[in-house]
Amino acid sequence: MVWHYKKLDKKDGLLLLVYWLFASPFIFMSNLTSYEIFRCSTSLVFTIIYDSVFSLVLVYYVLYHFLSKKQYFLTLLAMLTTLLVGSYLMDFGYSLTLGYEFNMDTGIESIVNMIVSNAQSTAPLAMLLMGKSFFDEQSKLLKLQKEQKESELKRLQSQVDPHFLFNNLNILDVLIEKDPKKARTFVHRLSALYRYLIRHKDEDVVPLAEEWE
Fold first, then answer.
1. Cα–Cα distances in Å, from 140 out to 27, 136, 145?
2. CB contact set of 24 (below 8 Å; sequence gap of 6+)
3. What is the Cα–Cα distance from 107 to 113, expressed in whole angstroms?
4. Alpha-carbon distance values, 2 to 60, 130, 134 (Å)
5. In whole angstroms, what is the distance from residue 171 CA to residue 190 CA?
6. Which helix (H) or strand (E) holds 195?
7. pLDDT tens digit string along 115-144?
């Protein structure tokens, strides 16, 4: 099975940096009311690492893979499984950094509480990453649509140009027989027109005054 995932870029790193610069003081101060500075610091480092890794895995790997295939039931199942596994990892990490005993409780109420706690901790960052991912996909779609329209326009131009030349050659053939002087004038104007077309062949738009001339 090919696993679909979204590649990280520099903007992802910048988003994480800005988020943690804003969120870190609040997290640190909330822990400072119950723990000493050392434990608050180590807990903050763990929170930054865990929330960042977990949110990236959830959004850019798990959700991206299943949603890209429109497998919505599997998306929900994979998200809950990821939250469950992450909840135990988060609880174990905080037990080490904050100094309380880790309890591998498998009761339904305990599991639900851990999942809710994990979701609350990682939801803000995960939502930001989901928003950025959606924006990136829309930008790619718009770029693809633009390239497709440009390709269609070039293909249409390549089809129109031979017909345009063919029609003008027929007109020239008639003028040569009926009025050679007008035929020479027609050739000069046709050559000037083609010089203009060649000069601007790679441009999507040109000034109206120049086009009118």
1. 36, 6, 9
2. 44, 48
3. 10
4. 15, 22, 22
5. 11
6. helix 180-199
7. 888 888 899 999 999 999 888 888 888 888
